[in-house]
Design goal:
globular, binds SN-glycerol-1-phosphate, 8-stranded parallel barrel, TIM Barrel
């Protein structure tokens, strides 16, 4: 089964998924394997491999080959540039930075990558994703010349998400920036999800606690991404965060089925 399709069926079951983001440029291959194994053990649903700087195909191939010997999770590339592709991965978030101020990050890099994909990476499943950088924005915002939308400008964030919806992206990623002091507020997640119900809403940046992960999942995020916490905290913290995402997802599913039942009873 294709990666996106199998994640969708997992999502229907769990209500929310957790993806672990690892950056090969920050750790040795041994550490990378250790972190990936920890993520799998904690119950994370996929590995995302990214990095704004310093990643090339050789590094990716080496790290992914090594990790595939030890870990069964799907491997999804989260490229910071055209150099972030690898034939060894299962899928790639084929992303456009919708609120970049530089057209290169909206469509230029994608045109280059599309030709490479068609010629050399036909095994790599593309997942069309709108990347919307908000709040602090972090390295991703800086590297892609984005104009991060402040959290309080909720209507502007929703407007970008709606644009992504009408343009037909499969997924929309609200990015607060790796290591952000504050994660995306639940109120923003809820407003965006109401506007783009049938799209996959991914949320990441600054999520460090089970409480934050739970409320973001409950507010409507379909996928919650954590990176920094995996590199910096003991595995037990990650397990608590993953459990909180899945608890939030199940609670959301039960809330929506109670809603449906209530409607049926009214009829
Ligand atoms: C960054 O959203 C991700 O692209 C993860 O952020 O490193 O803060 O978890 P953190």
């Amino acid at each position: 089964m294709a990666v996106f399709e199998s994640l969708m069926s997992k999502l229907a079951e769990k209500g929310a998924l957790h993806f672990s983001l690892l950056d090969p440029d920050k750790v040795t291959v041994d550490k990378f394997i250790e972190l990936a194994k920890g993520a799998e053990k904690a119950g994370s649903d996929a590995l995302m491999i990214g990095g704004s700087y310093g990643v090339n195909e050789d590094t990716l191939d080496n790290y992914i080959n090594a990790v595939k010997q030890e870990v069964k999770l799907p491997i999804i590339l989260f490229p910071g540039s055209v150099a972030g592709l690898s034939k060894k991965a299962d899928a790639v978030l084929f992303l456009s930075v919708l609120n970049s101020t530089d057209p290169y990050y909206i469509i230029g890099a994608q045109v280059q990558a599309a030709v490479l994909m068609a010629k050399h990476y036909s095994n790599l499943e593309p997942i069309p994703m709108a990347y919307i950088i908000i709040g602090e924005g972090g390295a991703a915002g800086f590297a892609s010349y984005a104009k991060p939308i402040p959290f309080h400008m909720e209507d502007v964030i929703v407007a970008y998400a709606l644009a992504a919806y009408y343009m037909g992206f499969s997924a929309i990623y609200l990015e607060a920036g790796s290591g952000a002091r504050e994660p995306v507020p639940s109120s923003v997640v809820a407003k965006v999800k109401r506007a783009v119900r049938n799209k996959i809403l991914m949320v990441g940046g600054g999520i460090r606690s089970p409480e934050a992960a739970y409320s973001i999942a409950l507010a409507g995020a379909d996928v919650i991404i954590t990176g920094t916490v995996i590199e910096e905290s003991p595995a037990v913290v990650l397990k608590d965060i993953v459990d909180a995402v899945h608890r939030g997802g199940l609670r959301k599913l039960s809330n929506s089925s109670e809603g449906i039942n209530a409607k049926i009873n009214v009829k």
